[in-house]
């Protein structure tokens, strides 16, 4: 006996959701427009819910972060061709793609931080139901920092100075962004 289910995957099956888009926000009272890429891999929990791990690439002024974390997607009406969808991504924006700048004893580097991103969108299944096209609108809150330090004989650990540095300047950022992403879910 064989069974066919068109338009939705079996519970426990693998899915992949890849998205590309733009982010918009402000930094120091200046508008910014950046890009975002994300790839979510996971399993179908039930007809409505998917859970997985994501990796991405987000550009910000003078910084590129690689978000890593967990993502949840919910399709409100999985049996219809067009459906409202919701999602939530929680993770950490890593800065390991950014290079540390060295000039004599002076160093400058970026560090990432916690990120969270709720989304709402539309999922439209292809005619054969094998994949879906998505359009998502959301909000992303990303924490990050830039450090400038002078290496020296400093003991560090005093007044927040790291060991091995005579002085450190830290500038913290909270990137609040409106995101618009287009994707394919298969």
Explained architecture:
- The protein has 186 residues and is mostly beta strands.
- The protein has one domain (14-141, 175-185): Porin, CATH 2.40.160.
- The protein has no helices and ten strands.
- It has strands at 14-27, 30-44, 49-60, 63-75, 82-94, 101-103, 106-111, 113-125, 132-151, 165-185.
- Strands 1-2-3-4-5-8-9-10 form an eight-stranded antiparallel beta barrel.
- It is elongated.
- The two termini are 26 Å apart.
How do the strands and helices of this protein lay out in sequence?
Elements: E1 14-27, E2 30-44, E3 49-60, E4 63-75, E5 82-94, E6 101-103, E7 106-111, E8 113-125, E9 132-151, E10 165-185
Antiparallel strand pairs: 1-2, 1-10, 2-3, 3-4, 4-5, 5-8, 6-7, 7-9, 8-9, 9-10
Protein name: Outer membrane protein beta-barrel domain-containing protein
Organism: Belliella filtrata
Features:
Porin; single chain; about 190 residues; disordered N terminus
Short description:
This is Outer membrane protein beta-barrel domain-containing protein. By secondary structure, this protein is mostly beta strands.
Largest sheet: 8 strands, antiparallel, barrel
Mean pLDDT: 90
Q: What is the approximate shape?
A: elongated
What's the CATH architecture?
A: Beta Barrel
Distance between the termini: 26 Å
Instruction: Briefly note the structural class of the backbone.
Output: mainly beta
Which H/E pattern describes the elements?
Answer: EEEEEEEEEE
What is the β-strand count? 10
Count the DSSP helices: 0
State which percent range the strand residues make up.
over 45%
Tell me the count of domains.
Answer: 1
Q: In which range does the helix fraction lie?
A: under 10%
Low-confidence stretches: 1-7
- Overall radius of gyration: 21 Å
Per the CATH scheme, the topology name is Porin
Widest sheet, order of strands: 1-2-3-4-5-8-9-10
- CATH level 1 name: Mainly Beta
């Amino acid at each position: 006996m064989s069974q066919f289910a068109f338009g939705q995957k079996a519970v426990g099956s693998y899915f992949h959701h890849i998205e590309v888009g733009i982010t918009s926000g402000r930094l120091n009272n200046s508008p910014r427009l950046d890009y975002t890429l994300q790839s979510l891999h996971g399993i179908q929990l039930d007809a409505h819910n998917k859970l997985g791990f994501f990796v991405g690439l987000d550009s910000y002024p003078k910084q590129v972060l690689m978000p890593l974390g967990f993502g949840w997607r919910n399709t409100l009406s999985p049996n219809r061709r067009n459906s409202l969808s919701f999602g939530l991504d929680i993770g950490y924006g890593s800065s390991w793609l950014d290079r540390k700048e060295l000039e004599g004893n002076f160093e400058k580097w970026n560090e990432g931080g916690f990120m969270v991103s709720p989304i709402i969108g539309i999922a439209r299944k292809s005619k054969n139901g094998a994949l879906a096209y998505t359009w998502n609108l959301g909000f992303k809150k990303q924490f990050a920092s830039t450090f400038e330090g002078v290496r020296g004989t400093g003991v560090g650990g005093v007044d927040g100075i790291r060991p091995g540095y005579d002085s450190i300047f830290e500038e913290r950022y909270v990137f609040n962004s409106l995101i618009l992403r287009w994707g394919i879910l298969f």
